[in-house]
Amino acid sequence: MKKLIFVAFFALLGAALFLEFKRLTIKPWPATHFEEITEHFKYGSIGAEVDGFPYAIWRELPTIFAEDLPRGFAEFGFLTEPGHDLPIGISVRRVGVERVGFNCGTCHVSTYRLEGREGLVLGAPANALDLQAYIAFLTRAARDERLTADAVIEAAEANGRTPGIWQKIVLRFVVFPRLEDQVAGLAKSLAWMDNRAPHGPGRTDAGNFWRERWGLEPAKDTRTGTVDFPSVWNQRIRLDGWFHWDGNNRSLDERNISAALAGGAPEWLLERHAIGRISDWLMNFPAPAYPAEIDAALADQGAAVYAREACGTCHDPGGAMLGQVTSNAALGTDPERTLLFDDRMVRYFERVGEGYSWQFDNYRVTDGYANMPLDGIWMRAPYLHNGAVPTLAALLAPPEARPETFYRGCVDFDPVAVGFTCTGGFAFDTTRIGNGKGGHLYGTALPAAEKPALIEYLKTL
Ligand code: HEC
Ligand code: HEC
After folding, report:
1. Measured in angstroms, how far is the CA atom of residue 384 from the centroid of ligand 2?
2. CA atoms of 386 and 207, how far apart (whole Å)
3. β-pairing, 109-114 with 419-420?
4. Which atom of ligand 2 sits closest to the CA of residue 337?
5. Average pLDDT over residues 86-104
């Protein structure tokens, strides 16, 4: 027994020292930090760069793969602001060599185009960003014969970034050899995507990355957790309710940390201070006002319809059921996302953060989806948790009249139907598992004349 305690003690000590060593190895290279919180949201670090793609290679990919990426990373929907080299949602940190990672802005910033204007909206679902296609490209590119150390050096020179001799050595003998292993591992861990509908722009799988991490073998089934990115502004009015599409957690801390972990930050390197700052800022960061004219008289009529139909019971601050979960037996939207988060998932979530002060213990199983506020709803299309309904007009139509396929991924805003109406791009197929367009029948049986009024009112929220 004594011997056992002795061994256990040293095992623990070893583990602690190893963690401390890992932290020390990156200590000389602090995460990118911006004083201005909006800059931090868009370009700062949440600690997700550790296993990221090497920056020296990453930034030359649009040159080396010019045929595949005529518009650079914008091809996947990444947004770039004037005066910035990096797209919104990409941070760089040195971890030995510089690596790129995601941050909160990756999935929670978007734009719209309306009447010739384009508007950037922080906190909006990144409706045009196809993360899955981006990751597939990176894994393909890493194994493509066009990607060699010579090609990277040549592209860097052409782009006016001639690497020094030491940088060339590191690139050839450190970065490249490791890249192959890293990418082979990544490709294998994403095999589960092959038996599911593609996410397309604006969505990701909220459950299967976790299942893969926990060894639950998602490649062996078709259970699907694909969700639309949500808006993240105005968090204060959400505090009394349950978070996430299925309302599976009400702890703010766990929600923030799980967001960072899902973005690729390891437990030992969470930038908790930065994440906390962003979380505080999002509390009162307002939803965007509708950017064009609203017909006030029509909106007034719509407000009366909204009140008569009791939409606010579930959707308004102060509404009796705001933040509560509506059982899917009554709601009838696609069940996959809520079914995926079952007892077993909760048990695994409770082990996340083992040994840390923040270890999770607030996850729960629900049988439906959470009633959320509709603030800034005009900018949250496509609608429902799985993004299966392109516009508000389609949401107010009976399910059989909602489009069976539609295009996603553009930012052309349609002020009549309210949503993005794309004439090309990613074809979203509502017949695939997890993509169902059914349910949420509220308002679908209204007289035809009342629907435009209700839509006009929804623009004011
Ligand atoms: C890879 C994309 C991605 C990244 C990166 C990301 N999120 Fe999210 N976020 C999501 C998705 C998807 C959901 C919805 C998950 C669900 O409910 O199934 C979500 C949910 C949320 C919610 C809850 C919204 C609600 O109404 O319940 C908040 C708040 C949030 N994220 C904030 C953040 C913050 C803060 C960060 C940075 C630390 C972050 N997110 C990073 C994709 C992302
Ligand atoms: C019993 C509660 C309840 C009532 C009543 C209700 N809703 Fe909802 N609503 C929900 C839930 C739950 C969702 C999320 C469903 C999902 O994503 O699968 C939702 C989703 C929505 C969305 C899409 C949100 C998004 O971000 O994609 C809109 C818009 C909406 N409701 C409008 C209305 C309107 C308008 C009415 C009244 C005609 C109404 N709702 C009545 C519970 C309700």
Report:
1. 8
2. 13
3. unpaired
4. 18
5. 92
As given in the structure block, the two tokens for residue 96 are 């030995």
- The pLDDT value recorded for residue 376 is 98
The DSSP symbol for 316 reads S
Q: Looking at ligand 1, which atom is closest to the CA of residue 337?
A: 18
Distance between CA atoms of residues 109 and 239, nearest Å: 21
Percent of the chain residues past pLDDT 70, beyond the cut: 94
Going from the Cα of 369 to the center of ligand 2, the distance in angstroms, rounded, reads 9
- Pick from 148, 180, 159: which is nearest to 53 by CA? 180
CA torsion sign for 94, 95, 99, 100 is: negative
Q: Mind giving me the DSSP string for 268-280? A: GG--HHHHHHHHH
| 375 in Cβ contact with 237 (< 8 Å) | yes
C-alpha distances in Å from residue 386, one per residue of 220, 226, 355, 390, 437: 22, 6, 34, 11, 8
Distance CA 349, CA 213 (A): 11
Q: 375 by DSSP, 3-state: which? A: coil
CA distances from 227 to 154, 261, 434 (A): 40, 17, 9
Is the beta carbon of 110 within 6 A of some atom in ligand 2? no
End-to-end Cα, the chain, rounded Å: 65
How much is the pLDDT for 33?
A: 84
Starting from the CA of residue 229, give the closest ligand: 1
Closest C-alpha to ligand 1, atom 31:
259
Residue of 354, 367, 372, 363 whose CA lies nearest to 254: 363
As a whole number of angstroms, the distance between CA 27 and CA 315 comes to 45
User: Residue 253 corresponds to which tokens in the numbers above?
Assistant: 């801390």
Distance 165 CA to ligand 1 centre (A): 42
pLDDT at residue 95 in the model: 84
